[in-house]
Design brief:
355 residues, 58% helix, two-stranded antiparallel sheet, mainly alpha, two-stranded parallel ribbon
Length: 355
């Protein structure tokens, strides 16, 4: 089930860095978040007042997002020691998310981590240029405006990434090796469909008076929408900021240190989910993907001391999010700045051209 070209992991910050992976710690996190997922699912479809069901349904979506962090670490080989165990734990963690491990590793490990913020290579949240935007159809321009608006993360991952990149090998890049992706695709499609069916059966058993569509909505559709929003928002914040450039030329990307300078450490104002807050120390993750998510804040401190001028970090707030969304519409690769949809610069030049 492996993908050629996507198996090698990025090297840690230091070849002599200690291996922080712990079998006990990793398994505890894995089973802990699966338990929270199961308990919140019971609350979402159980015979409770509807507002209570809705609350548990939202929580279930949050715990799906936490399982994503677990699976993401597994795909990097970072959750526990052992490549094979990581991959199987990742496959299981990715079932509620509907992600194929091989497709995720191809797009995320193989494309994103090797060339993050390089347009034409990095597939997630790559901004359009003004010429791309003007040459696009009216419908595609409207869609880009929705994506780059405040509610964009609520719809972006469904149409732009999930089905064609992470569930089925439908992109030109993944179709070339569709046979290699097929076993993991079958695994996750069968697991995903089984989970949805089991949700409906569980809901009918716990609350037989309710229609099946409502139980599936509470036990799957709403939680999945919550996960999609949290995932898309997090990916957006990781690599979109008025101080973060995107590139269309690999030599410029390399000269500017795009792998590090193209990431942000997003600090949470309230630390309700420590593992999520830790995972948002994203600069440290790109510097050393073998570091477990729970250890990233410590590595972020060390990294910032080493390359302070190349790191972007900020405290997340509604005001800061509005500022990012307002400024970061299109990216002009010649002037190396963010622009609005008319091509007017909204930031200073972010990187010198070297080619």
């Amino acid at each position: 089930m492996d993908v050629a070209g996507a198996d090698s992991l990025a090297k840690p910050m230091s070849e002599a860095a200690p291996d922080r992976r712990s079998l006990a710690h990793g398994l505890v996190l894995f089973f802990f978040y699966w338990a929270l997922y199961g308990l919140s699912l019971l609350g979402a479809v159980g015979s409770l007042p509807l507002p209570t069901n809705l609350l548990f349904s939202v929580l279930n979506g949050v715990f799906i997002a936490m399982l994503f962090i677990i699976g993401h670490d597994c795909c990097h080989g970072a959750l526990v020691p052992g490549r094979r165990l990581n991959l199987w734990l990742g496959r299981i963690a990715f079932v509620p998310i509907g992600h194929s491990v091989s497709l995720w590793r191809f797009a995320h490990n193989g494309l994103h981590h090797r060339r993050n913020n390089l347009s034409g290579v990095d597939p997630v949240w790559a901004p359009m240029s003004l010429s791309d935007y003007r040459n696009a159809s009216t419908a595609r321009r409207l869609l880009e405006r929705i994506y780059r608006g405040p509610l964009g993360p609520a719809v972006y991952y469904y149409g732009g990434i999930w089905v064609s990149w992470m569930l089925f090998p439908l992109t030109p890049q993944t179709l070339k090796r569709w046979k290699q992706h097929l076993p993991d695709t079958i695994f996750v499609v069968v697991g995903f469909a089984t989970l949805i069916a089991a949700t409906g059966i569980l809901g009918h058993w716990l609350a037989p008076a309710r229609p099946l569509w409502l139980e599936i909505a509470l036990g799957w559709a709403l939680p999945f929408a919550v996960w999609n929003y949290l995932g898309a928002l997090s990916f957006y914040l990781n690599h979109t900021h008025p101080d973060i450039p995107w590139f269309d030329n690999e030599s410029d990307w390399q000269s500017h240190g795009g792998g590090i300078s193209g990431t942000a450490h997003v600090k949470m104002p309230i630390d309700l989910l420590p593992l999520y807050s830790a995972a948002m120390a994203h600069t440290a993750h790109h510097a050393d993907p073998l570091t477990p998510a729970y250890d990233l804040p410590e590595h972020q401190v060390v990294l910032k001391r080493r390359i302070e001028n190349q790191t972007t970090d900020y405290m997340l707030s509604f005001g800061e999010y509005r500022r990012i969304v307002k400024i970061c519409k299109l990216f002009d690769h010649e002037r190396m700045c963010w622009t609005d949809f008319s091509g007017n610069p909204t930031t200073k030049r972010l990187a010198p051209a070297t080619s």
